[in-house]
Amino acid sequence: MVKIDDRFREAIQAIDGALVVSCQASSGEPLNHPDHILAMSLSALNGGARALRLEGVENVRHVRAAAEKLFEGHLPIVGLTKSEIPAAEKLSSVYITASFAEAEALAEAGADFIALDATGRKRADQLSLKETIERIHNQLNLPVWADCSTFGEGIAADEAGADIISTTLFGYTEETALPKDHGPGLDLLKEFVDHIASPVILEGRIWTPEELTRAFDLGAYAVVVGSAITRPQLITERFVKAIPSRRVRMPGFKPSR
User: Fold this and answer.
1) What are 202's strand-pairing partners?
2) What are phi and psi of 5, to 5 degrees?
């Protein structure tokens, strides 16, 4: 039986059985601009997504303002921030909504959920995970979306009061580090579903509709898909890697430099 806090029932029920699309672009990427994030978001919604996961206060604010003009109903937005730290440090450091101040800014911008690192690592403002969740609940009146990488982290986040438990960081911490092409954490999802009463989300490393279907079959409350839909450079890279090594270039062809 899914446990849903009465304070946040409407927001959480809005994503029941939904595809949530993560529309993000990293610093330096061509799509890293609020207008481009909005275009990706609208495209995802046109395709049937029922909610969005957005990084950055300005992106949340920009998409929320547009959604209020374009849609009659309320668009659920999962908001988060990402700290600008070297890629190598992301395995050992909190970088997703690393402080309460960042959560507060996301709430002001129009986020309906605050997604944060729930790995138990030291947070930027030195608050514990439990203290952070309590402040988000009591001061911002928003549900907390806990990004986890292991079963133990999911249990701890649930006990700390998180409203949604997600597999987001599976494969992206020192304890769980995996190659980029490793599939989603379906086994972790099943463990969460079997032991946690709160809604459980599959997020991360999902590339096929079949993986999404499998997640719902295992009991996922919702599924988040990002790169497979909104990161064209990564989609292109997968196709380029599939070119047979025996492929011979046409005579006279000179690659551009």
Assistant:
1) 223
2) -65, 130
Q: Are 41 and 54 in contact (CB under 8 A)?
A: yes
- Structural domain that includes position 141: 6-227
- Per-residue model confidence as pLDDT tens digits over 155-167: 999 999 999 999 9
Radius of gyration of the chain (CA): 19
- 224: how many CB neighbours lie within 10 A of its CB? 28
Both tokens assigned to 15: 């994503």
For residue 102, the one-letter residue type is: E
Per-residue pLDDT reduced to its tens digit, 165-184: 999 999 999 999 999 899 99
Q: Which two tokens stand for residue 245?
A: 């090594």
Question: Is this structure's pTM higher than 0.85?
Answer: yes
CA 43 to CA 63: how far, in whole Å? 12
Any domain includes 234: no
Within-domain flag for 257: no
Provide the number of structural domains found in the chain. Answer: 1
